[in-house]
Specification:
With 204 residues, the chain is α+β, with helices and mostly antiparallel strands. Helix content is 42%, strand content 23%.
Length: 204
Amino acid sequence: MPLLTAVIRSTLAAGLLAFSSGLLALDRHALLDEANILLLPRERELPNLHLLDEQGQVVRTETLKDRWHLLFFGFTACPDVCPTTLSDMRQLLAQLPSDVSNQLQLILVSADPKRDTPDVLRTYLSYYRAGFKGLTGEMEQLQKLSKALGLPFVPAEEPRGDYSVSHSGNLAILGPDGTLRGHIRAPFKLEGLKQAIPQLIEAE
Protein backbone atom coordinates (compact mmCIF):
# COMPACT_ATOMS: atom_id res chain seq x y z
CA MET A 1 0.00 0.00 0.00
CA PRO A 2 2.74 2.54 0.85
CA LEU A 3 4.38 1.69 -2.48
CA LEU A 4 1.13 2.35 -4.35
CA THR A 5 0.72 5.65 -2.52
CA ALA A 6 4.25 6.67 -3.46
CA VAL A 7 3.62 5.80 -7.11
CA ILE A 8 0.41 7.83 -7.13
CA ARG A 9 2.13 10.81 -5.54
CA SER A 10 5.00 10.57 -8.00
CA THR A 11 2.59 10.41 -10.94
CA LEU A 12 0.62 13.41 -9.68
CA ALA A 13 3.81 15.39 -9.13
CA ALA A 14 5.01 14.60 -12.64
CA GLY A 15 1.65 15.59 -14.05
CA LEU A 16 1.65 18.89 -12.17
CA LEU A 17 5.21 19.57 -13.31
CA ALA A 18 4.31 18.87 -16.93
CA PHE A 19 1.23 21.06 -16.61
CA SER A 20 3.28 23.86 -15.07
CA SER A 21 5.95 23.58 -17.78
CA GLY A 22 3.26 23.64 -20.44
CA LEU A 23 1.87 26.87 -19.03
CA LEU A 24 5.32 28.42 -18.99
CA ALA A 25 5.87 27.39 -22.60
CA LEU A 26 2.48 28.72 -23.58
CA ASP A 27 3.14 32.07 -21.90
CA ARG A 28 6.55 32.33 -23.58
CA HIS A 29 5.13 31.54 -27.00
CA ALA A 30 2.36 34.07 -26.46
CA LEU A 31 4.91 36.70 -25.51
CA LEU A 32 7.04 35.94 -28.55
CA ASP A 33 4.00 36.12 -30.76
CA GLU A 34 3.16 39.53 -29.32
CA ALA A 35 6.69 40.64 -30.19
CA ASN A 36 6.43 39.27 -33.75
CA ILE A 37 9.42 36.96 -33.11
CA LEU A 38 9.66 33.64 -34.90
CA LEU A 39 12.19 31.26 -33.34
CA LEU A 40 13.64 28.37 -35.31
CA PRO A 41 13.06 24.86 -33.93
CA ARG A 42 16.83 24.31 -34.10
CA GLU A 43 19.85 26.60 -34.28
CA ARG A 44 21.38 27.04 -37.73
CA GLU A 45 25.11 27.43 -38.44
CA LEU A 46 26.24 30.19 -40.81
CA PRO A 47 28.68 29.65 -43.68
CA ASN A 48 32.17 31.05 -43.20
CA LEU A 49 32.11 34.28 -45.20
CA HIS A 50 34.42 37.31 -45.43
CA LEU A 51 32.94 40.82 -45.45
CA LEU A 52 34.03 44.37 -44.62
CA ASP A 53 32.72 46.42 -41.71
CA GLU A 54 32.10 50.17 -41.71
CA GLN A 55 35.72 50.71 -40.69
CA GLY A 56 37.01 48.80 -43.71
CA GLN A 57 38.13 45.88 -41.53
CA VAL A 58 37.66 42.28 -42.66
CA VAL A 59 34.93 40.50 -40.68
CA ARG A 60 34.35 36.75 -40.80
CA THR A 61 30.88 35.47 -39.99
CA GLU A 62 32.42 32.96 -37.61
CA THR A 63 33.51 35.87 -35.38
CA LEU A 64 29.94 37.09 -34.80
CA LYS A 65 29.89 35.58 -31.32
CA ASP A 66 30.01 36.41 -27.60
CA ARG A 67 26.92 38.61 -27.77
CA TRP A 68 23.53 38.68 -29.46
CA HIS A 69 23.43 40.17 -32.96
CA LEU A 70 20.45 41.53 -34.87
CA LEU A 71 21.13 41.70 -38.60
CA PHE A 72 19.07 43.10 -41.44
CA PHE A 73 19.69 43.74 -45.12
CA GLY A 74 19.22 47.22 -46.50
CA PHE A 75 21.06 50.08 -48.21
CA THR A 76 22.00 53.62 -47.33
CA ALA A 77 19.93 55.15 -50.16
CA CYS A 78 16.80 53.36 -48.88
CA PRO A 79 13.99 55.93 -48.64
CA ASP A 80 11.80 54.35 -45.97
CA VAL A 81 12.26 50.81 -44.59
CA CYS A 82 15.90 51.13 -43.50
CA PRO A 83 15.62 54.52 -41.75
CA THR A 84 12.49 53.28 -39.97
CA THR A 85 14.22 50.06 -38.90
CA LEU A 86 17.25 51.92 -37.56
CA SER A 87 15.07 54.46 -35.73
CA ASP A 88 12.89 51.72 -34.22
CA MET A 89 15.92 49.73 -33.06
CA ARG A 90 17.55 52.83 -31.58
CA GLN A 91 14.34 53.47 -29.65
CA LEU A 92 14.12 49.85 -28.53
CA LEU A 93 17.73 49.63 -27.33
CA ALA A 94 17.35 52.90 -25.41
CA GLN A 95 14.35 51.48 -23.54
CA LEU A 96 15.90 48.12 -22.64
CA PRO A 97 17.79 47.67 -19.35
CA SER A 98 21.48 48.44 -19.87
CA ASP A 99 22.52 44.89 -18.93
CA VAL A 100 20.33 43.66 -21.81
CA SER A 101 21.11 46.33 -24.43
CA ASN A 102 24.85 45.87 -23.79
CA GLN A 103 24.49 42.29 -25.01
CA LEU A 104 22.93 43.34 -28.32
CA GLN A 105 24.58 44.57 -31.51
CA LEU A 106 22.58 45.76 -34.50
CA ILE A 107 24.18 45.29 -37.93
CA LEU A 108 23.04 46.72 -41.25
CA VAL A 109 24.23 44.41 -44.05
CA SER A 110 24.32 46.18 -47.40
CA ALA A 111 22.22 44.89 -50.28
CA ASP A 112 23.83 47.58 -52.44
CA PRO A 113 27.62 47.11 -52.16
CA LYS A 114 28.31 49.19 -55.28
CA ARG A 115 27.28 52.35 -53.45
CA ASP A 116 27.66 51.23 -49.85
CA THR A 117 31.40 51.41 -49.29
CA PRO A 118 32.70 51.22 -45.70
CA ASP A 119 33.02 55.02 -45.63
CA VAL A 120 29.44 55.51 -46.80
CA LEU A 121 28.15 52.99 -44.25
CA ARG A 122 30.12 54.61 -41.43
CA THR A 123 28.80 58.10 -42.24
CA TYR A 124 25.23 56.86 -42.64
CA LEU A 125 25.19 54.90 -39.37
CA SER A 126 26.79 57.76 -37.45
CA TYR A 127 23.60 59.80 -37.94
CA TYR A 128 21.81 57.47 -35.53
CA ARG A 129 24.42 57.78 -32.75
CA ALA A 130 23.54 54.32 -31.47
CA GLY A 131 26.69 52.26 -32.01
CA PHE A 132 25.22 50.41 -34.95
CA LYS A 133 27.59 48.43 -37.18
CA GLY A 134 27.59 47.89 -40.94
CA LEU A 135 28.77 45.16 -43.29
CA THR A 136 29.40 45.23 -47.03
CA GLY A 137 31.54 43.27 -49.47
CA GLU A 138 31.41 41.18 -52.62
CA MET A 139 27.92 40.51 -53.94
CA GLU A 140 28.50 36.74 -53.93
CA GLN A 141 29.36 36.77 -50.23
CA LEU A 142 26.39 38.99 -49.40
CA GLN A 143 23.98 36.74 -51.27
CA LYS A 144 25.29 33.67 -49.45
CA LEU A 145 24.74 35.42 -46.13
CA SER A 146 21.29 36.54 -47.24
CA LYS A 147 20.32 32.95 -48.02
CA ALA A 148 21.77 31.60 -44.79
CA LEU A 149 19.91 34.19 -42.72
CA GLY A 150 16.63 33.80 -44.59
CA LEU A 151 16.61 37.51 -45.46
CA PRO A 152 16.21 37.75 -49.25
CA PHE A 153 17.08 40.73 -51.39
CA VAL A 154 17.06 41.31 -55.13
CA PRO A 155 20.21 43.01 -56.49
CA ALA A 156 19.65 45.87 -58.90
CA GLU A 157 19.95 44.63 -62.49
CA GLU A 158 21.53 47.88 -63.69
CA PRO A 159 23.02 49.76 -60.73
CA ARG A 160 23.16 53.18 -62.41
CA GLY A 161 21.83 56.53 -61.35
CA ASP A 162 19.14 56.68 -58.69
CA TYR A 163 17.96 53.08 -58.25
CA SER A 164 16.35 51.07 -55.47
CA VAL A 165 16.92 47.56 -54.09
CA SER A 166 14.16 45.20 -53.01
CA HIS A 167 14.92 43.55 -49.66
CA SER A 168 13.33 41.87 -46.66
CA GLY A 169 12.23 44.06 -43.76
CA ASN A 170 12.84 41.35 -41.15
CA LEU A 171 15.78 41.04 -38.75
CA ALA A 172 17.77 37.88 -38.09
CA ILE A 173 18.63 36.95 -34.51
CA LEU A 174 22.07 35.43 -33.88
CA GLY A 175 22.84 33.90 -30.50
CA PRO A 176 26.14 34.40 -28.68
CA ASP A 177 27.41 31.18 -30.24
CA GLY A 178 27.01 32.72 -33.71
CA THR A 179 24.09 30.55 -34.79
CA LEU A 180 20.85 31.77 -36.33
CA ARG A 181 18.08 31.55 -33.72
CA GLY A 182 15.15 33.15 -35.48
CA HIS A 183 13.71 36.37 -36.88
CA ILE A 184 12.02 39.53 -35.75
CA ARG A 185 9.31 40.05 -38.31
CA ALA A 186 8.17 43.40 -39.64
CA PRO A 187 6.19 45.37 -38.67
CA PHE A 188 8.03 45.63 -35.36
CA LYS A 189 6.06 45.49 -32.12
CA LEU A 190 8.32 47.53 -29.86
CA GLU A 191 6.30 47.07 -26.68
CA GLY A 192 6.30 43.31 -27.15
CA LEU A 193 10.01 43.29 -27.99
CA LYS A 194 10.79 45.18 -24.77
CA GLN A 195 9.33 42.23 -22.86
CA ALA A 196 10.49 39.37 -25.07
CA ILE A 197 14.15 40.20 -25.71
CA PRO A 198 15.24 40.20 -22.03
CA GLN A 199 13.52 36.84 -21.56
CA LEU A 200 15.17 35.48 -24.69
CA ILE A 201 18.60 36.53 -23.45
CA GLU A 202 18.03 35.32 -19.89
CA ALA A 203 16.91 31.91 -21.18
CA GLU A 204 20.27 31.33 -22.90
